[in-house]
Amino acid sequence: MWGVDVSMNFDKYEVPTPSYVIEEGLLRKNCEILKSVMDATGCEILLAQKAYSMYSTYPLIGEYLSGTTASSLFEAKLGYEEMGKEVHIFSPAYREEEMDEILSICGHMVFNSVQQWEKYKTKVMGSPRKISCGLRINPEYSEIETDMYNPCFSGSRFGIKASALEGADLAGIEGLHFHTMCEQNSDVLERTLEVVEDKFGHLMHGMKWINFGGGHHITREDYDIQTLIRCINRIKDNYGVTVYLEPGEAVALNAGYLVSSVLDLNENDILLAIMDTSAACHMPDVLEMPYRPGIIGSGQPGEYPYTYRLGGPTCLAGDVIGDYSFPEPLQVGDRLVFCDMAIYSMVKNNTFNGIGLPAIFLNTEKDGLKVIRKFGYEDFKNRL
Fold first, then answer.
1. Whole-angstrom Cα distance, residue 39 to residue 144?
2. Cβ-based burial of 114 (10 A; exposed 0-12, middle 13-18, buried ≥19)
3. Of all helices (H) and strands (E), which one includes residue 335?
4. Residue 108's beta-bridge partner residues?
5. Within 10 A of 71 (CB to CB), how many other CB atoms are there?
6. DSSP readout, 19-33?
7. 12-22+256-341+349-381: which CATH architecture?
């Protein structure tokens, strides 16, 4: 029946719109897959909070994963306060006034350049807490086709090339970190590791840990987990290191929805539907990536008899979610459910045009829908 999907275990008319709804059961399923990789390899997997920071679910995630990784002081504090396990941090450049607080909560710290390491080395090594320090390397190899998401494209600000490490004093450095992937399968990791070993293998023998970064779509249905396990075990055994992975998307992949209402219907060469959800405000990756999120019960343009262009309520001409077809004509008030809306959604929300932020719900395994947070005018006003 149109509009029904067995993985959506709630009534879309039970929540206000727009609303994010995270499925606790699907989140747990992802974490169980990640934990199986940890159990098979002895590796450590961290939640990359840049993709998913719904901290009300951190206790659940913490049952399975080793901790969190952060790209800023605020993310580090969130992981420290709400999950309370390992906290790792990387930044292209650290702020001096934040360093004391970072050192008080982070156990692993990755530096983006030799200069940054030299600037903070004395302070970090003199910390009363043991901080394991690493360098981010740039293997100059990536199979990401979109430069915006490619950390290795020409002129990238991320990581240290092998040539820049020749003769460098690495005393105090215990790990290497690379991040070269985006929504990719383990065959890409396997090829990437060949390059990393070729360029940095001589340094890996002296390290305590290697971080493979994020971008591993481990919980996707077609992901080759056995190749990942083989890659991790080979590096661990050959170099005597602990292997870290820090996926963000894989933790909450396909675990959330965004429920939206049709506000108005119009026609301008094509059928138009104005939603109370904005691509610019509520799912900016639709415009940045770009990509077209799935909608339960819809098809590609022309697949079903009625094709509509869905747009948001802002004044931005390009606030277009995409073109979708439906078996029946849309009606004002219809609820449409966008899929895979747990990741890079809440963390990127904004209130452009004074558009309100979606409410956040958790569909719990025991008690059903639970309101996590609702937003109003003050949330818009207080940011300005």
1. 29
2. middle
3. strand 335-339
4. 88, 132
5. 14
6. EEEEEHHHHHHHHHH
7. Beta Barrel (2.40)
Residue type, 192: T
Put simply, whether the predicted model's pTM sits higher than 0.90 gets the answer yes
CA dist 327 → 1, 57, 266, 312 (Å): 10, 36, 18, 22
Q: What would the pLDDT profile of 49-64 be if each residue is shown by its tens digit?
A: 999 999 999 999 999 9
The amino acid occupying position 43 is C
Asked if the domains at 12-22+256-341+349-381 and 42-252 fall in one CATH topology, the answer is no
pLDDT in tens, 137-164: 999 989 888 888 888 888 889 999 999 9
Tokens encoding 288: 């940045």
**CA–CA gap between residue 301 and residue 289 (Å, rounded):** 20
* Helices 24-41 + 225-239 axis angle, to 10: 40
Domain spans of the chain, in order of start: 12-22+256-341+349-381, 42-252
**Under CATH, domain 42-252 is a member of which superfamily?**
Alanine racemase (3.20.20.10)
* Nearest Cα to Cα of residue 67 among 316, 313, 303, 246: 246
End-to-end CA distance of the chain: 45
